[in-house]
Amino acid sequence: MTILLVKSGGEAALPDWQRHFAESAPDIEVHWWDDPAIQPEQVEYVLVWEPDHGRLAQMPNLRMVLSTAAGVDHITRDPAWPAHLPLVRMGGEETAQRMGEYVSLACLGLLRDVRRIMASQVAEKWDYFENPRCALDVRVGIMGMGNLGARSAQMVAGLGFQVAGWSRSRKELPGIESFAGPEEFEAFLSRSDILVCLLPDTPDTRGAIRAETIALLPPGAGVVNAARGTHVVFDDLVAALQIGHLSGAVLDVFTQEPLPPGHPAWSHPHILVTSHLASLATRSARVRYVADAIRRHEAGEALPNLYDPIRGY
Ligand code: NAP
């Protein structure tokens, strides 16, 4: 039997993980991360969220690390993570679909001022207001056109928004304008009425949404961050909302999570806070994805969504 340790969803989630693995890959024996019955040398695969620093390095027969999330910063921030091993990021159809749904919700929420609608309901106030623009008039710019950005771009374009993407390499997606590299960043920003961040967390992308970049957006622009909290300089965002250069923001991720009580984002009239819930596939979908990756690895086939330590994502 192949032994897989899981650290995701708390120990209480283990029976659920085991049930799904029993259905998709009965030859994989699933144990909790801290199971005292399992010796480090028995472990061949791990499926993890925020593994304790140094633990992966103590597993001499580990063959592959699988992340329960699309981002892997929670693994690579361990200075001793075994960078010589394949690190597979969570992916698959459901993850992309769910992020596309979130980005659609966020863009429509900014377009229709959902924050104001929610506040009116809480105040039991009949607040009729007209909307000067519809989606056809609004240009959405998606930073990061990978698994999640590309699907989100297509879904948002389907709602009628004018969509462009920005990535390192140029993309060819029907109906989506493509900007590539630092030299086209300014042109991309200046046409983005709603800026959506779906970049990975790397030294190059940290602080991508800061005073200088926000200043290049058209007046009244909105911002959506569903990538990582490190992408936004929060004080710069608030300052731009304060002077009205930005009209609103939808934030799913923060540098400190859970976002602590009293954080100014909670009560800001133009910020919609969601609790890092933009896109997490169901456990059964994630297990099918992981079981397939392990099967491919054992068969010597190409792996999906491999992290590249040189690129940093
Ligand atoms: P991905 O497939 O690795 O795509 C990354 C994209 O960013 C690629 O298009 C890449 O360009 C581009 N990029 C990277 N560095 C760049 C740079 N310096 N300049 C311009 N473009 C750059 O990532 P993903 O799986 O779509 O994930 C995107 C983000 O979503 C990650 O931060 C992840 O952690 C986050 N996430 C959040 C949630 C949530 O619930 N909030 C859920 C899942 C994922 P190329 O295409 O040219 O390589």
Helices and strands, with pairings:
Elements: E1 2-7, H1 14-24, E2 28-32, E3 45-48, E4 64-67, H2 73-76, E5 87-88, H3 93-111, H4 114-122, E6 139-143, H5 147-158, E7 162-167, E8 177-180, H6 185-190, E9 194-197, H7 211-216, E10 221-225, H8 234-242, E11 246-251, H9 264-267, E12 271-273, H10 283-298
Parallel strand pairs: 1-2, 1-3, 3-4, 4-5, 6-7, 6-9, 7-8, 9-10, 10-11, 11-12
Throw out a few tags for this protein.
313 residues, alpha/beta, Rossmann fold, five-stranded parallel sheet, 10 helices, elongated, binds NADP nicotinamide-adenine-dinucleotide phosphate
Structure description:
The longest helix has 19 residues, at 93-111. The two termini are 31 Å apart. The protein has helices at residues 14-24, 73-76, 93-111, 114-122, 147-158, 185-190, 211-216, 234-242, 264-267, 283-298; strands at residues 2-7, 28-32, 45-48, 64-67, 87-88, 139-143, 162-167, 177-180, 194-197, 221-225, 246-251, 271-273. The protein is built from ten helices and twelve strands. The strands form two sheets. The protein has a seven-stranded parallel sheet. Strands 2-1-3-4-5 form a five-stranded parallel sheet, with helices on one face. With 313 residues, it is of the alpha/beta class. The chain is elongated, with a radius of gyration of 21 Å. The protein has two domains: 2-92 and 281-299, 3-Layer(aba) Sandwich (Rossmann fold); 95-273, Rossmann fold, CATH 3.40.50. The structure holds NADP nicotinamide-adenine-dinucleotide phosphate. NADP nicotinamide-adenine-dinucleotide phosphate is lined by residues 69-71, 144-149, 166-169, 198-202, 204-205, 226-228, 252-253, 276, 278-280, 313.
